[in-house]
C-alpha cells in the first residue's frame, strides 16, 4: 500500500474517532503534534488519544507514556483501527 493510501486511511480513522467521541458527549480538539491526534474532554475527564491503523507499535506506546499529564484527570489512549472497529488501549 502506498504512503498516500496509508495517509488517507489514517485521516479517515481520525475522522471516525472524532465522530464517535462527539456522539458520546465529548468536545474534541484535533492535535496532530506527532504524539497525540485528538484531545477529547467533558466535565470531569480528558482523553488524549493517538489514532493508528492496523497495529500498535512500541513507538506508539512509548510516545504516549512519555507525555506528562495529570493522572487523576487525563487518560492517555491509543485507538487502533482494525477494519470497522477500534481497539482502545490505555497507556
What features would you describe in this structure?
This protein has a single domain, classed as Trna Endonuclease, Chain: A, domain 1. The protein has a five-stranded mixed sheet. The model has no long low-confidence stretch (mean pLDDT 91). The termini are far apart. The chain is built from two helices and five strands. It is globular, with a radius of gyration of 13 Å. The longest helix is centred in the N-terminal third of the chain and has 21 residues. Helix 2 links the parallel strand 3 and strand 4.
Sum up the structure in keywords.
five-stranded mixed sheet; 2 helices; alpha+beta; 91 residues; Trna Endonuclease, Chain: A, domain 1; 36% strand
Furnish the topology, listing elements before pairings.
Blueprint: H1 3-23, E1 27-30, E2 38-42, E3 45-53, H2 58-65, E4 74-82, E5 85-90
Parallel strand pairs: 3-4
Antiparallel strand pairs: 1-2, 2-3, 4-5
Short characterization:
This protein is of the alpha+beta class. The protein is built from two helices and five strands, in the order H-E-E-E-H-E-E.
Oligomer: single chain
Strand order of the largest sheet: 1-2-3-4-5
| Helix count, DSSP H or I runs of 4 or more residues | 2
CATH architecture: 3-Layer(aba) Sandwich
Q: What is the third-level CATH name, the topology?
A: Trna Endonuclease, Chain: A, domain 1
Tally of structural domains: 1
How does the major sheet shape up? Answer: 5 strands, mixed
The CATH class, by name, is: Alpha Beta
In terms of per-residue confidence, which ranges show pLDDT below 50 for 5 or more consecutive residues?
none
Give the ordered list of helices and strands: HEEEHEE
Q: Which band does the percent of strand residues land in? A: 35-45%
